[in-house]
Each structure stands twice: as structure tokens, then as C-alpha cells.
Amino acid sequence: MTPWNTIPELVRSAAERYADTEAVVEGRTRITYAELGTRVERAAAACLASGVEVGDRVAVWAPNTLDWIVAALGAVSAGAVLVPLNTRFKGAEATDVLRRSGARLLFVTGTFLGASYVASRRRAGGAGAVGETEPGAGPLPVLPALDRVVVLSDEAPPDFDTWKDFLAAGEGVPGSEVTARERRLTGSTLSDIIFTSGTTGRPKGAMTTHAQTLRAYETWVDLAGLRRSDRYLIVNPFFHTFGYKAGVLACLMRGATMIPQPVFNVDTALANIAAERISVLPGPPTLHQSLLDHPARDAHDLSSLRLVVTGAAVVPLSLVERLREELGVGTVLTAYGLSEATGIVTMCRRDDPPAVIATTSGRPIPGTEVRVDAPSGTPGEVLVRGFNVMRGYYADPAATAETVTEDGWLRTGDVGVLDAAGNLRITDRLKDMFIVGGFNAYPAEIEQLLLSHPDVTDAAVIGTPHPRLGEVAKAFVVRRPGSPLTSDDLIAWSRREMANYKVPRSVEFVRSLPRNASGKVLKGELRRRR
Questions:
Q1: Where does 210-298 show beta strands of DSSP type E?
Q2: β-bridge mates for residue 208, sequence order
Q3: Which residue in 230, 444, 451, 487 is deepest, having the highest Cβ count within 10 Å?
Q4: Parallel, antiparallel, or unpaired for β 368-373 and 363-364?
Q5: Tens of pLDDT along 69-99?
Q6: DSSP 421-457
Q7: How far apart are CA 134 and CA 201, in angstroms?
Q8: Which uninterrupted H or E stretch holds 226?
Q9: What is the 3-state secondary structure (H, E, C) of 447-488?
Q10: Rounded CA gap, 185 and 520, in Å?
Q11: How far, in Å, CA of 424 to CA of 371, rounded?
Q12: What is the pLDDT of residues 4-43, one digit of tens each?
């Protein structure tokens, strides 16, 4: 059992227990846990003032920043269900999640990675508005449920609110009202909806409660050995369970200091590790490989690093050995999880040998069961049962029934093998998913986006090897007859219409796609062509 029933209880507990400990470092801004608690309470009061009720969905579309932490925890403390949006989304992609989640309030950054989120939101239309037309696209859906958009900046368009004005509106709400709202929440209250794509290409929102989240990540911090003295560089995006839950919430549990990094840049990471004496650095293997191979690595003092947790892709044994030998990292762990299981299913233990850490994702965390739907020692679909299995997909009972069996087993869609010691090794993906630099890419979703191009009549996507990113998308496309569309044209269009990790790096035009008798594309045949 965890010491907290809800996330706001965790926030208040951290503010009291670690009051004078540095909580968040963002450039020149440094705040303690007591100050973080005050900011979160102020944000919760502002949510109450804006009419947020228990169970309302509140979305955050912003990179890893202090404001993201405060806005998200403030919304959850007010009883809202957090809906994090992928920072790589374009306007149409974000609008679809906002529409289907029924989000009433949206916190949005100004500009990130050269894209104006505010402009994207304005193009998509707001409450009761008609969506404007983006270049090369049709009208975007309206969002009748969205009452308010808050820009996490000092400036905002006339129809949006600034972060400062939003917070000021909550100044008239007494602290007793915020506390009373928090006390209405229980462990079984929904805490978040994490949207994840499946084989149909349609994003589905995995619903998780406060109790599930707290239990899962109390386990995570115990297995990882997170400490109060740790300084944690959070590069994993907050819109992922790993960034938000194994990052922000884990630090709140142990009083570790958070140093959020908005986007992974190896030079920035090296500078942060040296300057802030970073001790904890989770992330995909590509992140750690980039650090090890950087030509200026030796110019930075990386001796403070002591804990690395990785996964989301194949982890070479050489990477584990190099982290230990070249950087002196004392603990390197691998793990496996998915949003439908609160982000964590299996994890290696600190005393596991390097070969186990590199070749498996460890054993089930306490309170969960993992089995493989195949004879012992042979690959089969991985099934999970336990406290960490989602409450279902939001507003999608049919998809929930397909994914979670009547006796509680979650069908992950991943293929794996269990060894004699119970360690899980993921060998394939039933979902056709591939991983681009730590981001899950789903072919069906990319195919659906490609098919919205007026000159594309059919499309299939596979993952192909890439020396730095692991895998990237390759598209096989059937053009409209007579179309002059080139591969460069389609790639450029894709960069405007979808998150960059989804964008095909190569396009091969074909007369038709190979299909079986039932009409299913033969992806195996396409992979042999790559």
C-alpha cells in the first residue's frame, strides 16, 4: 500500500516532507518543494474558478517545463482527468484527441520546435467555432466541449487567456475550497487518459486511476532505487507515462530534484549533466548511445550519473557495458510497459547481471501477472493481469472488450518469450508498431494520414532500420492515375501533416499493394523489399 490515496495527497506530502529541498530547476528558476506545492495549489484554485468539476477532462499540450508540471498537477488536484497531448502533434492530430476526450480546458505552449501551437489551435477552431482550412487539408473539426484555452506565456490572442491571467482568476478561491475538492477524490477516481494508437490507427484513451498510478510508481521508485539526493534529468516527454509518472510523480515520492529538458539535444544534455550534477537519466537506448558517442563527451564531467533506466527498444549488451565501464554508471536497468498497463509491466532488478538487463525487460512487478499465449519457451502474445491494467478505453467499450478479456487479461499485442526465471523478452509486435528514437510509431495511423492526401489511393507503411533512430517509416504508395506526385512532395506534405517521428523517410511508389485473399496487406512481402 502507498502512503497516499490520490495525487494531490502526494503533492501536499512532498511539499511538507521535502519543503526546503530543491524541487525543479529550469534555467535560472529554482524552486523548492514548498514553493512547488504553493504553485500547484494556486493552479488548482484557478481551475476551480474556471468551473472545472471532478471528472472534467483537462488537456496539456506543451513540452517539458515547470509550467507543464504546475498546470497538470493543479488540474488533477482540482479533480480533473489529465489528458496529455503529444508535443509532436500537428493541429489536426491534437484536435482529434481534444474532440474525442471532450476536454473542457486546454493548456498550450506558445511555440515549440518551430511550430506555433496557438496558431494550430486557432486554425482548428474553438468552442462553437468553424474550423478554418489548413493548406492542403479540409476543415478541421470543431470542439464544442472546449470552454477555455490558456497559453503558458505572458501573451495570448484576445480569445485565449495568458497563464498569468488564468492564475490571477483563482486568487479569490480560498485554500479551504481547494482542500475540500481534493478530499472528494479517492483512489478509484480517474487521474488521466493517455491516448495511444492501435492497429486501427485511431487513437484510444487508456483510463487510469489515482491508486493505480501511485502503486505502480511507488513500485518503480523502489525497484530503481530513487533517492532524495538524486537529481533527475527528465528528457522523456511528459505526455508519455514514463516522463510524467516515472519522472514527475516519482520525484515527488522521493524528494528528488527535477531538471526538465524540453527536447533531447545531446549537447544540452551533456551540459545539464555536468552543471547540475545529474544522477538519474532514464530514456531510450538512442539517448544514451548519443551521449556515449558524442565527440565532446570527455569535455564534460559525467561522473555524477549513477542510475539509468532504459527500454522501448532493443538494448545492446555493449550499451549496458559501456554505461558501466566508460561512464561509471552503477545501476543500469531495462523495463517494459504500455499505456494500457499504467506504463509499467516488467522491470529488471538492480542485482541482475548485464546479460539479463540487455536481453530481457525483466520480471513482472509485484501485483501483476504476465503470461505468453504460446507453449513454454516459444514466442506468443504477451498478456498482463493485475492492478496496473487500465480501466478501459475512454468512450470505447468495443475496443476495451477486444483488448481486455472478461477475466482481466490485457492483450498487449506484443510478442514475447518468458525464460525459466520469468524474465520477459519482447521479440515482435502484433500491432506492427515500430519505435523511432523512443517514440512508438503505428503504421496504420501513418497510413490513415497518408490516405488523406488527394493523390494517394492506397498506402502501406513498415519500419526500416536506421543507424541512429533504430527504425523509421518507409511508405509504399499507390498514386492517383496521372498524378505527378513525387516522393519528395509526399515527404514534405507529411512533415506538415504529422508528427516528425511518423514521417516516412522514404517513399516507394507501386502499382498495387500485395494483399491476401481477405484483402489484408502482406507486410512480410513489403519488408522483404526494403
A1: 231-234, 257-260
A2: 192
A3: 230
A4: unpaired
A5: 999 999 999 999 999 998 888 888 888 999 9
A6: T--EEEEEETT--EEETTEEE-HHHHHHHHTTSTTEE
A7: 22
A8: none
A9: HHHHCCCCCEEEEEEEEEEECCCEEEEEEEEEECCCCCCCHH
A10: 46
A11: 9
A12: 999 999 999 999 999 999 999 999 999 999 999 999 999 9
Q: Is the dihedral of CA 40, 212, 50, 116 positive or negative?
A: positive
Instruction: Give CA–CA dist 181/339, Å, rounded.
Output: 27
Distance CA 387, CA 341 (A): 8
- The tally of CA atoms less than 13 A away on the side-chain side of residue 458 is 12
DSSP 49-90: HTT--TT-EEEEE--S-HHHHHHHHHHHHTTPEEEE--TT--
Single-letter amino acid code for the residue at 455: D
In this structure, what C-alpha cell is assigned to residue 479? 498514386
Tell which residue, 108, 110, 144, 140, has the closest CA to residue 126: 144
Cell output for 55: 471528472
Which of 420, 465, 419, 462 is CA-nearest to residue 444?
Answer: 462
State yes or no: pLDDT of 285 exceeds 90: no
Query: In the block, which residue shows the cell 539517448?
Result: 287
Comparing 349-358, 442-451, 457-466, the range with the smallest average pLDDT is 442-451
Q: What are phi and psi of 252, to 5 degrees?
A: -60, -35
Lowest mean pLDDT among 1-10, 118-127, 141-150, 407-416: 118-127
The cell numbers describing 64, all together, are 517539458
What's the pLDDT at 134? 40
Higher pLDDT, 72 or 158: 72
What is the enclosing helix (H) or strand (E) of 161? strand 161-162
The length of the chain, given as a count of residues: 530
Name all domains of the chain by residue range, CATH numbers in brackets: 7-11+29-207 (3.40.50.980), 264-429 (3.40.50.12780), 434-529 (3.30.300.30)
* Cα–Cα distance measured from residue 196 to residue 83, given in angstroms and rounded to the nearest whole number: 11
Euclidean distance between CA atoms 135 and 130, whole angstroms: 16
Mean pLDDT check: name the lowest of 47-61, 117-131, 346-360, 394-408.
117-131
Distance CA 368, CA 214 (A): 15
| DSSP symbol at 299 | G
What is the mean predicted confidence (pLDDT) over 468-476?
95
135, pLDDT greater than 60: no
Q: How confident is the model at residue 445 (pLDDT cuts 50, 70, 90)?
A: confident
Residue with cell string 538492480: 350
Output phi, psi for 124, to 5 deg. -80, -15
At residue 359, does pLDDT exceed 80? Answer: yes
**C-alpha to C-alpha distance for 503 and 207, rounded to whole angstroms:** 28
pLDDT at 334 over 50: yes
pTM of the predicted protein model: 0.85
Number of Cα atoms under 13 Å in the Cβ half of residue 152: 24
